[in-house]
Amino acid sequence: MTSLRSSLRNLVSAVLDLLYPNFCGVCGSFLFRDHYFVACKECWEENFTPYIGEKCSICGHPLEFLPGAPGICKRCLEKKRTFNFDSVSYFTLYQGLPEFAVKEMKFSRLKPVAHLIGKTISSHFLTAVKSLNVDLVIPVPVSAETLKERGFNQTEEILNSVGINYILLLEKPFTPKKQSTLSFKERSENVRGVFKVKIEFKMELFGKSVLLFDDVFTTGATANEIAGLLKRYGARKVHVYTVCYTPFLGSARM
């Protein structure tokens, strides 16, 4: 019976691939049967890989793009930046296939891509959780408006496939302006007061070490706002882990 069901699923998958053809976002090959929805299996495994370069100890930025002092990027060094969060970890950089996959997941509402991302980062993420010795994993929420439009919260779906317990401690009562259109200062102001700790969890944070999970880190405005909120409710430490980190390549308004 199991074999029959598997054969039927494979048949249905093959028929859908023929009826609704799609192509690999990297090599352009036709995606048929054993694929990753936005890329062929080979391209996904070759391009959706961990970043292994040195990172800024303050903001997490890859030092190869913003060299400053040992362990600190040029931006944090020159501007003496500080954040409410205690560290930043991430799986890969927000460029190439990872950027394409995240955008397709969110804006084309491809929930299966979230599950694939979760499986891809699982080992790396669980290692980070263990090394940081965190008590709680908290996904960044989306607003009710975004949830209705997209149909799912990508951070929750990714964590479901990672296979780790998490707590829906935060809520986002309204949708602010899109962060992508704003400067660093404007982004910080745009997310101020946007997130809330749910009333039933207000005592959960005291003395806890927390890992905040998101899909993309760009300027750190969202993570910084939430970290400050969590610490006001008693969190001892707030670490950040994102799937992708956006490297500053000279064109962003910071």
- Examine the secondary-structure arrangement and name the CATH architecture of the largest domain: 3-Layer(aba) Sandwich
Question: Structural class from helices and strands?
Answer: alpha/beta
Number of strands: 6
CATH class of the largest domain: Alpha Beta
Order of helix and strand elements from N to C terminus: HHHEHHEHHEHEEHE
List the domain count as a whole number.
2
CATH topology of the largest domain: Rossmann fold
Q: Biggest sheet, open or closed, and with what strands and sense?
A: 4 strands, parallel
Question: How large is the count of helical segments?
Answer: 9
Strand order of the largest sheet: 1-6-5-2
Low-confidence stretches at least 5 residues in length (pLDDT < 50)? 10-20
Secondary structure: helix percent: 25-40%
**First CA to last CA: what distance?**
58 Å
Query: What is the subunit organization of this protein?
Result: single chain
